[in-house]
Design goal:
The chain is an alpha+beta fold and about 190 residues long. The chain contains five helices and 15 strands. About 5% of the residues have low confidence.
Length: about 190
């Protein structure tokens, strides 16, 4: 599962270059931790080109309180609430890193080993007068599994256009092997025995 991620100004500049949008004010707006129900930058394919847009994270639930923030890669095409969106409105959620919490409730960070940006696969839909996005999750790979059994579906930078525009790539992407990630903690909890 992915419940929080982080964007810094360097990351924001990189995905603005990918979409051709450069805006220093947007860099400041798109920096920091991103939590469910907040607005964040996503890359879409409107007008047949990569476009940087701001959307709200999470689909509202009709019968319950709260939001749906993730969708499982294994069942996303089967669930009525997600199917049309993932077939027709895919997006990419760029981040510097994402967080998971281990069994002792310690925050663990994950980032790409070879790229300064993580590209998480997602999709969006319109609710009311605004667009909302969801991050797709998959079974954790060996680098994340010791901390959590799920992780965001990570795309490589070379796969962004295919994810957004190529319907044949969709099935492959939902089942692909993801690259190993670098895991780190800002601090480690120490226990003293007397």
């Amino acid at each position: 599962m992915c419940g929080r991620y982080y964007i810094d100004s360097e990351t924001a500049e990189k995905f603005e270059k990918i979409t051709g949008k450069t805006n220093r004010a947007a860099n400041r707006e798109h920096s920091g931790d991103v939590c469910p129900s907040q607005y964040a930058a996503v890359i879409t394919g409107r007008n047949n080109r990569l476009s940087l847009e701001e959307m709200k994270w999470g689909f509202p639930q009709y019968q319950k309180k709260g939001m749906l923030i993730n969708a499982r890669a294994e069942t996303v095409l089967e669930r009525k609430i997600f199917r049309d969106s993932v077939l027709n409105r895919r997006c990419v959620i760029p981040a510097k890193l994402f967080y998971e919490w281990d069994a002792s409730k310690t925050r663990v960070s994950f980032r790409h080993r070879d790229d300064s940006v993580l590209y998480m696969a997602g999709f969006y839909n319109r609710f009311g007068d605004e667009d909302h996005f969801i991050i797709i999750t998959a079974e954790a790979n060996p680098s994340v599994r010791p901390v959590h059994d799920r992780m965001p579906l990570i795309l490589e930078s070379s796969e962004l256009q295919s994810w957004i525009f190529d319907n044949q790539f969709l099935e492959y992407a939902l089942h692909k092997q993801m690259t190993a990630l670098e895991r780190f903690q800002e601090y480690e909890q120490q226990t003293l025995f007397l």
